[in-house]
Protein backbone atom coordinates (compact mmCIF):
# COMPACT_ATOMS: atom_id res chain seq x y z
CA UNK A 1 0.00 0.00 0.00
CA UNK A 2 1.36 3.41 -0.95
CA UNK A 3 0.13 5.00 2.26
CA UNK A 4 2.10 2.51 4.29
CA UNK A 5 5.32 2.89 2.39
CA UNK A 6 5.06 6.69 2.31
CA UNK A 7 4.47 6.70 6.07
CA UNK A 8 7.45 4.43 6.57
CA UNK A 9 9.59 6.87 4.60
CA UNK A 10 8.67 9.59 7.08
CA UNK A 11 9.01 7.38 10.13
CA UNK A 12 12.43 6.06 9.11
CA UNK A 13 13.82 9.59 9.07
CA UNK A 14 13.26 9.79 12.81
CA UNK A 15 15.11 6.58 13.58
CA UNK A 16 18.06 6.91 15.90
CA UNK A 17 20.06 3.68 15.90
CA UNK A 18 22.08 2.37 18.84
CA UNK A 19 25.15 3.45 16.91
CA UNK A 20 23.76 6.99 16.60
CA UNK A 21 23.01 7.05 20.33
CA UNK A 22 26.58 6.08 21.14
CA UNK A 23 28.08 8.63 18.78
CA UNK A 24 25.86 11.34 20.25
CA UNK A 25 26.81 10.32 23.80
CA UNK A 26 30.52 10.68 23.06
CA UNK A 27 29.89 14.08 21.50
CA UNK A 28 27.77 15.08 24.50
CA UNK A 29 30.66 14.21 26.82
CA UNK A 30 33.03 16.19 24.62
CA UNK A 31 30.78 19.26 24.59
CA UNK A 32 30.24 19.00 28.36
CA UNK A 33 33.98 19.05 28.87
CA UNK A 34 34.38 21.96 26.48
CA UNK A 35 31.76 23.91 28.47
CA UNK A 36 33.66 23.24 31.70
CA UNK A 37 36.84 24.65 30.17
CA UNK A 38 35.70 27.90 28.59
CA UNK A 39 32.84 30.32 28.03
CA UNK A 40 30.95 30.78 24.81
CA UNK A 41 30.50 27.07 24.05
CA UNK A 42 27.24 25.51 22.89
CA UNK A 43 26.61 23.93 26.29
CA UNK A 44 27.04 26.73 28.82
CA UNK A 45 27.85 24.46 31.83
CA UNK A 46 26.97 27.26 34.25
CA UNK A 47 28.44 26.91 37.77
CA UNK A 48 25.62 27.32 40.29
CA UNK A 49 27.78 27.68 43.44
CA UNK A 50 25.58 25.08 45.04
CA UNK A 51 28.29 22.83 46.43
CA UNK A 52 26.27 20.35 48.38
CA UNK A 53 22.84 19.49 49.21
CA UNK A 54 20.55 21.26 53.41
CA UNK A 55 20.07 18.82 56.24
CA UNK A 56 16.31 18.50 56.11
CA UNK A 57 15.69 19.46 59.72
CA UNK A 58 14.92 23.08 58.95
CA UNK A 59 11.58 24.64 59.70
CA UNK A 60 9.88 27.46 57.94
CA UNK A 61 7.43 28.68 55.42
CA UNK A 62 8.67 29.77 52.05
CA UNK A 63 7.13 30.96 48.86
CA UNK A 64 8.29 29.60 45.55
CA UNK A 65 7.37 30.70 42.08
CA UNK A 66 8.19 28.85 38.90
CA UNK A 67 8.34 30.43 35.48
CA UNK A 68 8.80 27.36 33.34
CA UNK A 69 7.69 28.30 29.86
CA UNK A 70 4.05 27.30 29.64
CA UNK A 71 2.76 27.87 33.13
CA UNK A 72 3.50 30.10 36.06
CA UNK A 73 3.18 28.41 39.43
CA UNK A 74 3.06 30.09 42.81
CA UNK A 75 3.38 27.89 45.84
CA UNK A 76 4.06 28.05 49.53
CA UNK A 77 6.00 25.29 51.13
CA UNK A 78 5.96 24.62 54.85
CA UNK A 79 8.98 22.64 55.90
CA UNK A 80 7.96 20.92 59.09
CA UNK A 81 11.44 20.13 60.34
CA UNK A 82 10.77 16.41 60.49
CA UNK A 83 11.37 15.68 56.82
CA UNK A 84 7.77 16.33 55.86
CA UNK A 85 6.43 19.36 54.15
CA UNK A 86 3.10 20.80 53.10
CA UNK A 87 2.72 22.47 49.76
CA UNK A 88 -0.06 24.59 48.32
CA UNK A 89 -0.02 25.97 44.83
CA UNK A 90 -1.80 27.93 42.15
CA UNK A 91 -1.01 27.51 38.48
CA UNK A 92 -1.84 29.86 35.61
CA UNK A 93 -1.01 29.67 31.93
CA UNK A 94 1.29 32.47 30.82
CA UNK A 95 -0.60 34.62 28.30
CA UNK A 96 1.04 34.26 24.87
CA UNK A 97 1.26 38.01 24.36
CA UNK A 98 3.33 38.39 27.51
CA UNK A 99 5.92 35.93 26.16
CA UNK A 100 6.76 38.46 23.49
CA UNK A 101 5.86 41.62 25.41
CA UNK A 102 7.55 44.89 24.53
CA UNK A 103 8.94 45.36 27.99
CA UNK A 104 10.01 43.07 30.79
CA UNK A 105 7.80 45.09 33.12
CA UNK A 106 4.66 43.73 31.46
CA UNK A 107 5.62 40.13 32.15
CA UNK A 108 6.98 40.66 35.65
CA UNK A 109 4.04 42.77 36.81
CA UNK A 110 1.78 39.91 35.74
CA UNK A 111 3.90 37.52 37.82
CA UNK A 112 3.76 39.82 40.86
CA UNK A 113 0.00 40.04 40.51
CA UNK A 114 -0.25 36.25 40.64
CA UNK A 115 1.72 36.28 43.89
CA UNK A 116 -0.75 38.79 45.31
CA UNK A 117 -3.69 36.63 44.23
CA UNK A 118 -2.05 33.59 45.84
CA UNK A 119 -1.42 35.35 49.17
CA UNK A 120 -4.96 36.67 49.31
CA UNK A 121 -6.32 33.23 48.56
CA UNK A 122 -4.13 30.96 50.67
CA UNK A 123 -2.62 33.19 53.35
CA UNK A 124 -5.41 35.69 53.82
CA UNK A 125 -4.85 36.51 57.48
CA UNK A 126 -1.12 36.88 57.08
CA UNK A 127 -1.63 39.08 54.06
CA UNK A 128 -4.15 41.29 55.88
CA UNK A 129 -1.94 41.55 58.97
CA UNK A 130 1.06 42.53 56.88
CA UNK A 131 -0.84 45.16 54.94
CA UNK A 132 -2.08 46.62 58.23
CA UNK A 133 1.43 46.70 59.68
CA UNK A 134 2.72 48.31 56.55
CA UNK A 135 0.09 51.04 56.71
CA UNK A 136 0.94 51.75 60.34
CA UNK A 137 4.63 51.82 59.46
CA UNK A 138 5.59 48.96 61.78
CA UNK A 139 6.57 46.41 59.18
CA UNK A 140 10.09 44.98 59.16
CA UNK A 141 11.61 43.48 56.08
CA UNK A 142 12.92 40.58 58.16
CA UNK A 143 9.26 39.58 58.57
CA UNK A 144 8.76 39.32 54.85
CA UNK A 145 8.13 35.94 53.33
CA UNK A 146 11.22 34.66 51.56
CA UNK A 147 10.61 33.62 48.00
CA UNK A 148 12.60 31.22 45.87
CA UNK A 149 12.32 32.15 42.20
CA UNK A 150 12.57 29.23 39.82
CA UNK A 151 13.43 30.79 36.51
CA UNK A 152 14.00 28.23 33.83
CA UNK A 153 15.90 30.22 31.24
CA UNK A 154 19.65 30.61 30.85
CA UNK A 155 20.93 33.00 33.47
CA UNK A 156 24.35 34.17 34.44
CA UNK A 157 24.02 33.74 38.19
CA UNK A 158 25.81 36.50 40.11
CA UNK A 159 24.52 35.84 43.59
CA UNK A 160 22.07 33.65 45.41
CA UNK A 161 19.31 36.12 44.50
CA UNK A 162 20.85 37.83 41.53
CA UNK A 163 21.23 36.69 37.95
CA UNK A 164 21.24 38.24 34.53
CA UNK A 165 19.24 36.74 31.71
CA UNK A 166 21.55 35.43 28.97
CA UNK A 167 18.88 34.77 26.36
CA UNK A 168 15.26 33.77 26.10
CA UNK A 169 14.26 30.28 24.94
CA UNK A 170 11.02 28.30 24.49
CA UNK A 171 9.34 30.96 22.34
CA UNK A 172 9.85 33.87 24.75
CA UNK A 173 11.22 37.03 23.19
CA UNK A 174 11.38 40.19 25.29
CA UNK A 175 14.69 41.80 24.26
CA UNK A 176 14.36 44.45 26.94
CA UNK A 177 14.92 41.82 29.66
CA UNK A 178 18.13 40.32 28.27
CA UNK A 179 21.12 41.25 30.42
CA UNK A 180 18.94 42.36 33.33
CA UNK A 181 18.76 40.87 36.82
CA UNK A 182 15.51 38.89 36.81
CA UNK A 183 15.24 38.92 40.62
CA UNK A 184 15.37 42.71 40.65
CA UNK A 185 12.76 42.83 37.88
CA UNK A 186 10.43 40.68 39.99
CA UNK A 187 11.20 42.46 43.29
CA UNK A 188 10.44 45.85 41.74
CA UNK A 189 6.97 44.70 40.69
CA UNK A 190 6.36 42.99 44.06
CA UNK A 191 7.27 46.22 45.82
CA UNK A 192 4.94 48.22 43.60
CA UNK A 193 2.10 46.07 44.90
CA UNK A 194 3.34 46.49 48.47
CA UNK A 195 3.57 42.74 49.04
CA UNK A 196 5.48 41.49 52.11
CA UNK A 197 7.72 39.30 50.00
CA UNK A 198 11.46 39.25 49.44
CA UNK A 199 12.99 37.46 46.47
CA UNK A 200 15.64 35.53 48.37
CA UNK A 201 16.93 32.99 45.90
CA UNK A 202 17.17 32.44 42.19
CA UNK A 203 16.98 28.81 41.17
CA UNK A 204 17.07 27.02 37.89
CA UNK A 205 14.31 24.40 37.70
CA UNK A 206 16.89 21.69 37.08
CA UNK A 207 18.77 22.60 40.26
CA UNK A 208 15.49 22.70 42.20
CA UNK A 209 14.62 19.27 40.87
CA UNK A 210 18.00 17.88 41.90
CA UNK A 211 17.63 19.41 45.41
CA UNK A 212 14.13 18.08 45.92
CA UNK A 213 15.12 14.66 44.65
CA UNK A 214 18.16 14.47 46.93
CA UNK A 215 15.85 15.37 49.81
CA UNK A 216 13.72 12.30 49.22
CA UNK A 217 16.11 9.74 47.76
CA UNK A 218 16.73 6.82 50.01
CA UNK A 219 19.71 4.92 51.40
CA UNK A 220 22.86 4.62 49.42
CA UNK A 221 21.22 6.01 46.32
CA UNK A 222 22.81 9.25 45.34
CA UNK A 223 21.01 11.76 43.17
CA UNK A 224 23.41 13.05 40.60
CA UNK A 225 21.14 14.76 38.11
CA UNK A 226 17.96 16.80 37.91
CA UNK A 227 16.47 16.80 34.44
CA UNK A 228 13.55 18.69 32.97
CA UNK A 229 11.46 17.43 30.09
CA UNK A 230 8.62 19.93 29.91
CA UNK A 231 8.18 22.88 27.59
CA UNK A 232 11.94 22.81 27.26
CA UNK A 233 14.65 20.44 28.36
CA UNK A 234 17.71 20.96 30.55
CA UNK A 235 19.69 19.27 33.28
CA UNK A 236 21.82 20.12 36.32
CA UNK A 237 24.26 17.61 37.77
CA UNK A 238 26.90 17.23 40.43
CA UNK A 239 30.36 17.81 38.98
CA UNK A 240 33.76 17.50 40.60
CA UNK A 241 35.26 20.91 41.30
CA UNK A 242 38.51 19.73 39.78
CA UNK A 243 36.75 19.28 36.44
CA UNK A 244 35.51 22.88 36.35
CA UNK A 245 38.47 24.43 34.59
CA UNK A 246 37.01 27.77 33.56
CA UNK A 247 37.38 30.68 36.00
CA UNK A 248 34.62 31.01 38.61
CA UNK A 249 33.79 34.46 39.93
CA UNK A 250 33.75 34.13 43.68
CA UNK A 251 34.56 32.18 46.78
CA UNK A 252 32.54 29.18 47.80
CA UNK A 253 32.76 26.23 50.12
CA UNK A 254 35.20 23.84 48.53
CA UNK A 255 34.95 21.22 51.26
CA UNK A 256 32.65 18.84 49.42
CA UNK A 257 34.80 18.90 46.30
CA UNK A 258 31.65 19.13 44.20
CA UNK A 259 29.50 21.75 42.60
CA UNK A 260 26.13 21.58 40.87
CA UNK A 261 26.49 22.61 37.24
CA UNK A 262 23.57 23.76 35.10
CA UNK A 263 24.38 22.27 31.71
CA UNK A 264 21.88 24.22 29.53
CA UNK A 265 21.88 21.05 27.44
CA UNK A 266 19.02 22.44 25.35
CA UNK A 267 21.81 23.95 23.28
CA UNK A 268 23.83 20.74 23.03
CA UNK A 269 25.25 20.44 19.53
CA UNK A 270 23.89 23.65 18.06
CA UNK A 271 26.56 23.03 15.43
CA UNK A 272 24.77 19.79 14.44
CA UNK A 273 27.82 17.53 14.61
CA UNK A 274 25.68 14.57 15.62
CA UNK A 275 22.07 15.63 16.04
CA UNK A 276 19.68 14.06 13.54
CA UNK A 277 18.06 16.61 11.28
CA UNK A 278 15.05 16.04 9.08
CA UNK A 279 13.50 18.46 6.67
CA UNK A 280 10.85 19.19 9.32
CA UNK A 281 13.45 19.99 11.97
CA UNK A 282 14.85 22.56 9.56
CA UNK A 283 11.47 24.13 8.87
CA UNK A 284 10.71 24.31 12.58
CA UNK A 285 14.04 25.93 13.34
CA UNK A 286 13.85 28.48 10.52
CA UNK A 287 10.43 29.60 11.69
CA UNK A 288 11.41 29.79 15.37
CA UNK A 289 12.28 32.98 17.25
CA UNK A 290 15.82 31.67 17.81
CA UNK A 291 17.06 29.86 14.69
CA UNK A 292 20.27 27.90 15.14
CA UNK A 293 20.13 27.63 18.91
CA UNK A 294 18.53 25.23 21.39
CA UNK A 295 18.89 22.58 18.69
CA UNK A 296 18.79 19.64 21.12
CA UNK A 297 15.74 21.10 22.86
CA UNK A 298 14.01 21.52 19.51
CA UNK A 299 14.21 17.76 19.00
CA UNK A 300 13.36 16.70 22.52
CA UNK A 301 10.93 18.86 24.46
CA UNK A 302 7.19 19.40 24.74
CA UNK A 303 7.08 22.72 23.00
CA UNK A 304 8.53 21.27 19.80
CA UNK A 305 7.43 17.66 19.39
CA UNK A 306 3.89 18.53 18.37
CA UNK A 307 5.20 21.00 15.81
CA UNK A 308 7.50 18.41 14.23
CA UNK A 309 4.58 15.98 13.96
CA UNK A 310 2.43 18.74 12.52
CA UNK A 311 4.93 19.58 9.80
CA UNK A 312 5.50 15.94 8.84
CA UNK A 313 1.75 15.30 8.83
CA UNK A 314 1.14 18.29 6.56
CA UNK A 315 3.60 16.80 4.07
CA UNK A 316 1.73 13.52 4.12
CA UNK A 317 -1.55 15.36 3.57
CA UNK A 318 -0.01 17.04 0.54
CA UNK A 319 1.36 13.71 -0.74
CA UNK A 320 -1.06 12.47 -3.41
CA UNK A 321 -0.05 8.86 -2.89
CA UNK A 322 -1.35 8.88 0.65
CA UNK A 323 -4.81 10.51 0.92
CA UNK A 324 -4.36 11.28 4.60
CA UNK A 325 -7.48 12.87 6.09
CA UNK A 326 -9.11 12.84 2.62
CA UNK A 327 -11.63 10.32 1.27
CA UNK A 328 -12.63 9.84 -2.37
CA UNK A 329 -16.04 8.85 -1.06
CA UNK A 330 -17.56 7.43 2.12
CA UNK A 331 -16.71 3.84 1.22
CA UNK A 332 -13.01 4.69 1.67
CA UNK A 333 -13.60 5.45 5.33
CA UNK A 334 -14.34 2.71 7.90
CA UNK A 335 -16.83 5.07 9.52
CA UNK A 336 -18.71 5.14 6.17
CA UNK A 337 -18.31 8.88 6.20
CA UNK A 338 -16.01 11.55 4.82
CA UNK A 339 -13.19 13.05 6.83
CA UNK A 340 -13.35 16.81 7.20
CA UNK A 341 -10.73 19.14 8.62
CA UNK A 342 -11.77 22.57 9.75
CA UNK A 343 -9.86 25.44 8.15
CA UNK A 344 -9.29 26.59 11.71
CA UNK A 345 -7.57 23.33 12.65
CA UNK A 346 -4.32 23.67 14.54
CA UNK A 347 -2.81 21.46 11.85
CA UNK A 348 -2.58 24.58 9.70
CA UNK A 349 -1.09 26.86 12.35
CA UNK A 350 2.44 27.08 13.71
CA UNK A 351 2.52 25.45 17.18
CA UNK A 352 -1.07 24.37 16.53
CA UNK A 353 -0.51 20.76 17.57
CA UNK A 354 0.12 20.29 21.28
CA UNK A 355 2.47 17.52 22.35
CA UNK A 356 -0.25 16.13 24.59
CA UNK A 357 -1.88 14.78 21.40
CA UNK A 358 1.23 12.63 20.93
CA UNK A 359 0.64 11.16 24.36
CA UNK A 360 -2.91 10.25 23.47
CA UNK A 361 -1.68 8.64 20.23
CA UNK A 362 0.94 6.63 22.10
CA UNK A 363 -1.50 5.53 24.79
CA UNK A 364 -4.19 4.30 22.41
CA UNK A 365 -3.68 0.63 21.65
CA UNK A 366 -7.26 -0.18 20.81
CA UNK A 367 -7.89 -1.75 17.39
CA UNK A 368 -10.09 1.17 16.36
CA UNK A 369 -7.82 3.84 17.85
CA UNK A 370 -10.99 5.39 19.16
CA UNK A 371 -9.45 7.69 21.78
CA UNK A 372 -6.92 9.02 19.30
CA UNK A 373 -9.68 9.67 16.77
CA UNK A 374 -11.68 11.48 19.43
CA UNK A 375 -8.59 13.52 20.31
CA UNK A 376 -8.06 14.44 16.64
CA UNK A 377 -11.61 15.69 16.65
CA UNK A 378 -11.46 17.70 19.85
CA UNK A 379 -7.90 19.04 19.58
CA UNK A 380 -7.49 19.42 15.85
CA UNK A 381 -11.04 19.63 14.55
CA UNK A 382 -10.50 16.63 12.30
CA UNK A 383 -13.91 14.94 12.08
CA UNK A 384 -14.41 11.30 11.09
CA UNK A 385 -10.74 10.49 10.64
CA UNK A 386 -10.54 6.97 9.23
CA UNK A 387 -8.71 4.16 10.95
CA UNK A 388 -5.93 4.37 8.39
CA UNK A 389 -5.61 8.12 9.00
CA UNK A 390 -5.30 7.52 12.72
CA UNK A 391 -2.74 4.75 12.15
CA UNK A 392 -0.60 7.03 10.00
CA UNK A 393 -0.80 9.83 12.54
CA UNK A 394 0.05 7.44 15.37
CA UNK A 395 3.09 6.09 13.51
CA UNK A 396 4.50 9.56 12.82
CA UNK A 397 3.82 10.75 16.38
CA UNK A 398 5.44 7.64 17.84
CA UNK A 399 8.54 8.09 15.72
CA UNK A 400 8.99 11.69 16.89
CA UNK A 401 8.34 10.72 20.53
CA UNK A 402 10.75 7.81 20.36
CA UNK A 403 13.53 9.89 18.86
CA UNK A 404 13.02 12.43 21.67
CA UNK A 405 13.27 9.75 24.34
CA UNK A 406 16.41 8.24 22.80
CA UNK A 407 18.01 11.68 22.59
CA UNK A 408 17.06 12.22 26.25
CA UNK A 409 18.96 9.02 27.01
CA UNK A 410 22.02 10.53 25.36
CA UNK A 411 22.01 13.41 27.86
CA UNK A 412 21.25 11.20 30.85
CA UNK A 413 23.69 8.48 29.80
CA UNK A 414 26.52 10.94 29.19
CA UNK A 415 26.07 12.45 32.66
CA UNK A 416 25.95 9.03 34.30
CA UNK A 417 29.24 8.18 32.57
CA UNK A 418 30.72 11.55 33.53
CA UNK A 419 29.82 10.94 37.19
CA UNK A 420 31.81 7.70 37.28
CA UNK A 421 29.21 6.37 39.74
CA UNK A 422 28.67 3.10 37.91
CA UNK A 423 32.28 2.21 38.76
CA UNK A 424 32.00 3.38 42.37
CA UNK A 425 31.74 0.40 44.76
CA UNK A 426 29.98 2.65 47.33
CA UNK A 427 27.12 3.45 44.98
CA UNK A 428 24.32 0.90 44.52
CA UNK A 429 21.84 3.00 42.70
CA UNK A 430 22.52 6.07 40.62
CA UNK A 431 19.47 8.25 41.20
CA UNK A 432 18.13 10.76 38.72
CA UNK A 433 15.24 13.14 39.35
CA UNK A 434 13.16 14.26 36.42
CA UNK A 435 10.24 16.62 36.09
CA UNK A 436 8.07 18.07 33.34
CA UNK A 437 4.84 17.13 31.61
CA UNK A 438 6.53 15.24 28.80
CA UNK A 439 8.37 12.71 30.97
CA UNK A 440 5.46 12.56 33.38
CA UNK A 441 2.68 12.01 30.88
CA UNK A 442 4.08 10.62 27.64
CA UNK A 443 3.51 6.86 27.83
CA UNK A 444 6.68 4.77 28.03
CA UNK A 445 8.96 7.81 27.75
CA UNK A 446 11.11 6.50 30.59
CA UNK A 447 10.93 2.96 29.26
CA UNK A 448 12.29 4.18 25.92
CA UNK A 449 15.04 6.08 27.73
CA UNK A 450 16.06 2.88 29.56
CA UNK A 451 16.07 0.92 26.33
CA UNK A 452 18.54 3.38 24.83
CA UNK A 453 20.65 3.55 28.02
CA UNK A 454 21.17 -0.21 27.78
CA UNK A 455 22.71 0.29 24.36
CA UNK A 456 25.28 2.85 25.53
CA UNK A 457 28.85 1.56 25.79
CA UNK A 458 29.97 1.80 29.40
CA UNK A 459 26.40 1.46 30.70
CA UNK A 460 24.90 -1.64 29.11
CA UNK A 461 21.98 -3.63 30.52
CA UNK A 462 23.74 -4.13 33.89
CA UNK A 463 24.48 -0.43 34.29
CA UNK A 464 21.00 0.59 33.18
CA UNK A 465 19.55 -1.58 35.94
CA UNK A 466 21.40 0.50 38.54
CA UNK A 467 20.12 3.79 37.17
CA UNK A 468 16.91 4.92 38.81
CA UNK A 469 15.01 7.65 37.02
CA UNK A 470 12.23 8.98 39.25
CA UNK A 471 9.76 11.80 38.93
CA UNK A 472 10.51 14.67 41.31
CA UNK A 473 6.93 15.85 41.50
CA UNK A 474 6.82 19.61 42.07
CA UNK A 475 10.55 19.42 42.51
CA UNK A 476 11.14 22.93 41.37
CA UNK A 477 8.80 24.37 44.03
CA UNK A 478 10.29 22.34 46.86
CA UNK A 479 13.81 22.90 45.60
CA UNK A 480 13.27 26.66 45.36
CA UNK A 481 11.90 26.71 48.91
CA UNK A 482 14.95 24.79 50.14
CA UNK A 483 17.30 27.23 48.50
CA UNK A 484 15.30 30.21 49.81
CA UNK A 485 15.75 28.69 53.26
CA UNK A 486 19.49 28.50 52.83
CA UNK A 487 19.53 32.06 51.54
CA UNK A 488 17.69 33.15 54.65
CA UNK A 489 20.15 31.33 56.88
CA UNK A 490 22.95 33.17 55.19
CA UNK A 491 21.37 36.52 55.99
CA UNK A 492 20.46 35.58 59.54
CA UNK A 493 23.28 37.64 61.06
CA UNK A 494 21.34 40.67 59.96
CA UNK A 495 17.96 39.31 60.79
CA UNK A 496 16.11 39.00 64.03
CA UNK A 497 15.31 35.33 64.66
CA UNK A 498 12.12 36.26 66.55
CA UNK A 499 10.78 38.02 63.48
CA UNK A 500 11.23 34.89 61.49
CA UNK A 501 9.44 32.80 64.11
CA UNK A 502 6.62 35.35 64.36
CA UNK A 503 6.22 35.14 60.63
CA UNK A 504 5.82 31.41 60.69
CA UNK A 505 3.31 31.59 63.57
CA UNK A 506 1.30 34.26 61.77
CA UNK A 507 0.72 32.02 58.82
CA UNK A 508 -2.50 30.13 59.02
CA UNK A 509 -2.08 26.89 57.16
CA UNK A 510 -5.23 25.93 55.38
CA UNK A 511 -4.96 22.16 55.10
CA UNK A 512 -8.47 21.80 53.77
CA UNK A 513 -7.48 23.32 50.49
CA UNK A 514 -7.72 20.81 47.68
CA UNK A 515 -4.29 21.75 46.41
CA UNK A 516 -2.66 20.96 49.70
CA UNK A 517 -1.04 17.67 50.30
CA UNK A 518 1.48 16.32 52.69
CA UNK A 519 4.50 14.53 51.54
CA UNK A 520 6.37 12.43 54.02
CA UNK A 521 9.76 12.39 52.45
CA UNK A 522 12.78 10.69 53.87
CA UNK A 523 15.37 13.23 54.82
CA UNK A 524 18.28 13.33 52.52
CA UNK A 525 21.25 15.40 53.39
CA UNK A 526 20.83 18.85 52.01
CA UNK A 527 23.28 21.63 52.69
CA UNK A 528 24.00 24.50 50.39
CA UNK A 529 26.96 26.76 50.73
CA UNK A 530 27.37 29.94 48.81
CA UNK A 531 29.90 31.79 50.91
CA UNK A 532 30.82 33.99 48.01
CA UNK A 533 27.43 35.56 48.43
CA UNK A 534 28.18 36.30 52.05
CA UNK A 535 31.36 37.93 50.86
CA UNK A 536 29.47 40.08 48.40
CA UNK A 537 27.25 41.32 51.20
CA UNK A 538 30.08 42.67 53.30
P1 LIG B 1 6.76 24.05 32.19
O1 LIG B 1 7.71 23.70 31.11
O2 LIG B 1 6.12 25.38 32.02
O3 LIG B 1 7.36 23.88 33.56
P2 LIG B 1 5.33 21.52 31.91
O4 LIG B 1 6.38 20.71 32.54
O5 LIG B 1 3.92 21.26 32.31
O6 LIG B 1 5.50 23.06 32.08
O7 LIG B 1 5.46 21.28 30.33
C1 LIG B 1 4.58 21.85 29.44
C2 LIG B 1 4.87 21.26 28.07
O8 LIG B 1 4.52 19.88 28.09
C3 LIG B 1 4.09 21.90 26.95
O9 LIG B 1 4.98 22.09 25.88
C4 LIG B 1 3.05 20.86 26.58
O10 LIG B 1 2.82 20.85 25.20
C5 LIG B 1 3.66 19.57 27.02
N1 LIG B 1 2.66 18.63 27.52
C6 LIG B 1 1.62 18.90 28.36
N2 LIG B 1 0.89 17.80 28.60
C7 LIG B 1 1.50 16.80 27.91
C8 LIG B 1 1.23 15.40 27.73
N3 LIG B 1 0.18 14.82 28.30
N4 LIG B 1 2.07 14.69 26.94
C9 LIG B 1 3.12 15.27 26.34
N5 LIG B 1 3.41 16.57 26.45
C10 LIG B 1 2.63 17.33 27.22
MG1 LIG C 1 8.70 23.16 34.75
Topology of this protein?
Layout: H1 2-12, H2 18-37, E1 46-47, E2 59-67, E3 71-80, E4 84-93, H3 96-99, H4 104-122, H5 124-135, E5 145-151, E6 155-159, E7 162-165, H6 182-192, E8 197-203, H7 205-216, E9 222-229, E10 233-240, E11 258-262, H8 279-286, H9 297-300, H10 302-318, E12 340-341, H11 356-363, H12 370-380, E13 382-383, H13 387-419, E14 430-435, H14 437-441, H15 445-454, H16 460-466, E15 467-471, H17 475-490, H18 497-506, E16 517-520, H19 531-537
Parallel strand pairs: 2-5, 5-8, 9-14, 14-15
Antiparallel strand pairs: 1-11, 2-3, 3-4, 4-16, 6-7, 9-10, 10-11, 12-13
Helix pairs in contact: 1-13, 2-13, 4-5, 4-6, 7-17, 8-10, 10-13, 11-12, 13-15, 15-16
Bound molecules: adenosine-5'-diphosphate (ADP) and magnesium ion.
Adenosine-5'-diphosphate is lined by residues 68-71, 230-231, 302-303, 354-356, 358-359, 436-438, 441-442.
Amino acid sequence: MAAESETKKVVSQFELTDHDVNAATLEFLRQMDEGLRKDGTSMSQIPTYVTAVPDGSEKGVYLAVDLGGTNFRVCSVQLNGDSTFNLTYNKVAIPKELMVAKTARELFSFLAMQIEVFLKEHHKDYYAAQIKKRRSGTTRSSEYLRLGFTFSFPVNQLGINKGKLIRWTKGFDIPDAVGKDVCALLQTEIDKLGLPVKVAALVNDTVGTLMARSYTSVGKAKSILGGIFGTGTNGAYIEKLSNIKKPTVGEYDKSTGDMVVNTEWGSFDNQLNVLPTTKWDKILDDASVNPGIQMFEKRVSGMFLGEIVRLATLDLIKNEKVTLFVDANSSFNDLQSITTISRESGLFKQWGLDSSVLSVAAADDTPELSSLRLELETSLQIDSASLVDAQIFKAVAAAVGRRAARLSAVAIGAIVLQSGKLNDPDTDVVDIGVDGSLVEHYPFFRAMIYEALKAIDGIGPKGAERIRIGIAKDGSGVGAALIALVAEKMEKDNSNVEDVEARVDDLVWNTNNHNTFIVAGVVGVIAIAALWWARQRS
